[in-house]
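Take a careful look at the sequence and tokenised backbone pasted below. I need to know what the token row says about the fold.
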Amino acid sequence: MIRFNCDYGEGAHPRILARLQETNFVQTPGYGEDEYCREAAEMIRSLCESPEVDVHFLMGGTQANLTVLSAALRPWQGVVSADTGHIAVHETGSIEACGHKVLCIPHANGKLRAEDVEALCRAHYADASFEHMVMPGAVYISNPSELGTIYTLAELSALRKVCDEYHMLLFLDGARLGYGLASPENDLTLPFIAQTADVFYIGGTKQGALFGEAVVIRNAALKRDFRYQIKQRGGMLAKGRLLGIQFAELLRDGLYFDLSRHAVSLAMQIKAALQESGYEFLIDSPTNQQFPIFTDEQLSRLSESYAFSYQCRVDAKRSAVRICTSWATRAEDVERLISDIRRG
């Protein structure tokens, strides 16, 4: 079985495993206060061209989202999200469990539109009883989105403007950030993201690390006491060096970006083959996640050899699935899939 159902099915890049082995018996302070975490944090500040940002290393995306938003929001505030957002769908109500409502609004190809966020805020404050309702305190987006689409520079700037107008934090989930930056349609840069978002993170779990996400904080108020929040939410890893080592190696010599380009390049090959063979798509994605529509017969045949992530039923005879490439996807597996796709 060849798996195209996710981008975290493999372990870690060999360079990371080798570096973990090399440093295995080095004694360091705990809880992320070691030389490796400091090195990785400085590398991130340099890549972001933002020496003032704080960098914290957490173990996973859900933990990062929960920790950031529980620190960012006051008890009476909620977070605005697309109704397809990860915090709204695939995190078992973790945000609500810490006392904050997820304020869902319809998505536009998986993304939030600034005008929709503004409409929600305007309606909230136009209601005479607004103090009786959950106050929008932050905006959550992911880049790429859950549907593989990416935000443009203009779209991110428009969201920043709305957040400033209504005194909300802008939080960008970057679990797959490298794949977004590697997209042929991307016009965002790490420095622009670091200057536009109050807080974002650079994903490692889905991009070549064993585990880990690097949270980058620009907002001064959010920086304060953030390590208390990490500890309270169970994110302060005693052997924090394991995160620093991984990110330092992942970012060294551009490995992170090379791996991202690898995954996106293979996804574009699959996309081109599907288009040439006349397949339709649930959505047009320019990243490592592709969403073709197959008939039940086609899907049954392909599923004998490949694992996909089921997306939704399209009509009586067809379903959409997600085909996901990763940093470790093999070219020969993609070639085999393309060959079987072309068989119809």
Q: What stands out?
A: The chain has a mean pLDDT of 97. The chain has 15 helices and 13 strands.
